[in-house]
């Protein structure tokens, strides 16, 4: 399979990976033949990239860090909890959400089980979902990323559990923000921006009132918009004043937000997002945490379509963990637009005259 932009998809091509709705259910499944109506609908739903079946890349399968079933159950849990809160007239006054802590410890435990089977984790979050499902899928992505960093930090089971629950629920305060604000297509007014910023305190107050959610998990909601240099909110904390769990969640939050399509901008590539994170080291985030995070990110994931400096189009076929910027690629189109008689591979780690110009 290979990953392509929706604008280059042709009628008759088939999906190679499913596309999910906001609640985690499948919208279009693997093997569905795409027609013009489907393609237009996907674009209208905010889906800009999809995986298609391709005779030259049938053996290339993106290596997901968690199984589809694990992700589906996690998204379902987040969706059920958050939409339930949205339906309440007064989220702030809600004293307790039954068994929210135990529910999300179980959910994150399944994520950890999947992560534990991975020896060398290079993250490629290849799950595809509609724009309306961003809030729910984003929470799961942040939890996966945070879990990987927690494991790399050597956290024990209790620490990982507190971090994971906090990561899954870090944005729960957004349920008190009017949907037309956080889903707005365009810049926020000053009043709207201030209302959105209250979600950190709303989330903290909701989580700390739960008998089975730790205060450390609740602080992920409160502090994930604090910044290392003290210019964040709500309290303007800096450096070690910000709990490490919240710093990890903040990095994961920004990375996944940058690499996801949004109503007001196009998505960043993984390499562009990593460049942003490094540039913000010791300004927005602790640079040591940024370095640790970025060591586990696949800059050019398997099945990505890329343009080489030679003008050739290629698909990433494998990634060298020791040289993530220089993957092995499979050439599927020459610079003159012709297809090679047989696709062939170039190891960019060995062939330094070749570079990746951009991701297509």
Automatic annotation (TrEMBL):
Record EC number: 3.1.4.-
Domain (HD-GYP) ranges: 104-309
Assigned keywords, A-Z: Hydrolase
InterPro entries reported for this sequence: HD/PDEase_dom, HD_GYP_dom
Enzyme type, top EC level: hydrolase
Pfam families listed in its UniProt record: HD_5
SUPFAM superfamilies reported in the protein's UniProt record: HD-domain/PDEase-like
GO MF, one example: hydrolase activity
Record's keyword annotation contains Hydrolase: yes
Record's protein name: HD-GYP domain-containing protein
Annotated organism of origin: Paenibacillus gansuensis
